[in-house]
Amino acid sequence: MPTLRFHALKETFNRVPIPVTEPERRSDIFGKNVFNEAAMRQYLTKDSFKSVMDAVENGSKIERHIADHISTGMKEWAIAKGATHYTHWFQPLTGATAEKHDAFFETMENGQAIEKFGGGQLVQQEPDASSFPNGGIRNTFEARGYTAWDPTSPAFIYGTTLCIPTVFVAYTGEALDYKTPLLRALQSIDGAATAVAKYFDKNVTKVIATLGWEQEYFLIDSALAASRPDISLAGRTLLGHSSAKGQQLDDHYFGSIPARVLNFMRHLETECMLLGIPVKTRHNEVAPNQFELAPIFEETNLAVDHNSLLMDLMHKIAEKHNFKVLFHEKPFANVNGSGKHNNWSLATNTGVNLLGPGSTPMKNLQFLTFFINTLKAVNEYEELLRASIASASNDHRLGANEAPPAIISAFIGSQLTSVLDELEKMTSGKLSPQEKTDLKLNVVGKIPEILLDNTDRNRTSPFAFTGNKFEFRAVGSTANCANPMTVLNAIVARQLIDFKKQVDALIKDKKMKKDDAIFNVLKEYIKDSKRIRFEGDGYGEAWEKEAEKRGLSNHKTTPEALKAKVSKKTIELFEGLGIMSKIEIEARHEIEVEDYALRIQIEGRILGDIARNHIIPTAIRYQNILIENVQGLKNIYGTDFKKFSVEQMHLIEQISEHIAKINKGITDMIDARKKANKIEDAEDKAFAYCNDVKPFFQVIRYHCDKLELLVDDELWPLTKYRELLFTK
Ligand code: ADP
Ligand code: MG
User: Fold this and answer.
1) pLDDT, tens digit, for every residue of 642-651?
2) Of the residues 297, 454, 472, which should be mutated to test ligand 1's pocket, given the most ligand atoms within 8 Å of the CB?
3) Which residues contact 123 (CB under 8 A, 6 or more apart)?
């Protein structure tokens, strides 16, 4: 009997919920382990405090002697909370977070010791980071990377370590992480959106991009997860026959949360509170054992850090509750995969949500301005937006087995559709006072503050307007949000800069009134970006055909999609806004195509190993039992045995056929890998893995899954789908 599977199942059946202690009120502990405003007021001098706040709000530089004061205050605060170490916490291009811990402890000449943490250590650190991916930047420049403090995201204590959010850059200045370009993109959108917001309110001096992510994930018992080499190594199942019952009955969605899971969530949320992550919502998702967690939205840089921190935290807390968290976009075939919806909007320092309809025609004109500019930006850069969410694992969702599709389109709802249709009909040039009044009162003025059909109607749209924000739904559950957020904020910034130029030109050259000019430019934008608007069902061939007619891209695989990241248009965009240089852009592309090839290579190896070392031997063992049985029948019944062994003989033959096909599949796959590995160019190699290696996965899996249905359950070595998905 295969011991691992049954041992794991036995362990799982004996589990009981792990008790958790929660605070009486969450608000009591919120941000307790964060060096936030309250902590800074207590531990910093007035000057230091002002300097940090100024850096956060206005991006001003912190003087070195002030940094010394800040580090001292930060250290005292951290030690008072039991911290012994500090680390620069950063997000290298592996997608995970990285840290290297150093003790505060230092010895002195007189044989005594003290706790030390100077301004220099706060501001800059040099991790021995030679094995983080850098796409050739560091080799080319023979420069090492260093991490530098990002004061816009507050330091926090995790365990006994003071974590300082940092950027990671090469000595030659190129960004080696996700955060650096994000911060630059956020600066661009601030500048561009503030300039446009001033058309409507002179008091606006800053615009922040807001992000509220929704994290989907699966929770699998840790013993069951460990019993499967594919889940352990690739974070997803590479084979396994579907469970007879899956998600057909929709009985898991929003159902009651199982007790063990609930305790995990309560524990996790308590830790989140301490770290200042404002988690708010938890519920079951569509697939069995799939869940979701969402916070209250925050400023984008902070929200991105919080999502990275959360994912890290989830792994650690899950372990304590004997679970493994799967963030993979498609851990199981034939049940829903996981995404990470990115809710995005723009807010002014005067407290206005620029993507929220208002109560007056003027407020609504402001809303429409930002709304239509966003649509125009998405229309213009749909291919880059698609590229920003491309990964080997997200390919399983986009354009593969489930919505949203690989085609980027925007859902806006029927109310806004009719508003845009009306605006499109207006006359060009200067508006007559009557037409303007009519537009303001009957079109713009009629937008209700609450848009009824914009809540959650269109689940298949990759980019949906949901009443007061856009929801970028195609982002994968494993993704670092910085990547799509850098692109989205950059393209909208670019668009708003162009918009302002056009409006100003109409005011100056055509002597138009401001409103006339805005209406005129918006009207053209509505026409220009019509093709990106799609209200229908994005799942299926009809939309694919229609999208092709509209000239929208439909890149179903990562290597294909990633091309847009290095196009001339993209380089112009990023260089023009000072977000990334050509070298940085190309380095990132190289890292991403390399990562793709590596992931497919690893999966190929795992699949080959499991099929050869687990599946085929098991199938042969069962076949031998059948052969023995047939021989026994022959001993008893002589030539009559055939009558009694029809099923057995048939099974014996079927098993042999499947084994032969699996063997051939593996051999061919290995040959394809060998060929791919000889390719020097990283992009060509990714294409080879995508087009020549990956297709064998399906073939091998198909026959393994067929064997799963034939072979005696008692002999089957791999924990089955029904066990993985329905054990609570
Ligand atoms: P629901 O759709 O569950 O009724 P909401 O629409 O309020 O709730 O929010 C869904 C997600 O969108 C949450 O994660 C929330 O934080 C986020 N969100 C809401 N408003 C904004 C905004 N202005 N900017 C960014 N994210 C937002
Ligand atoms: Mg959502």
Assistant:
1) 999 999 999 9
2) 297
3) 62, 64, 67, 148, 149
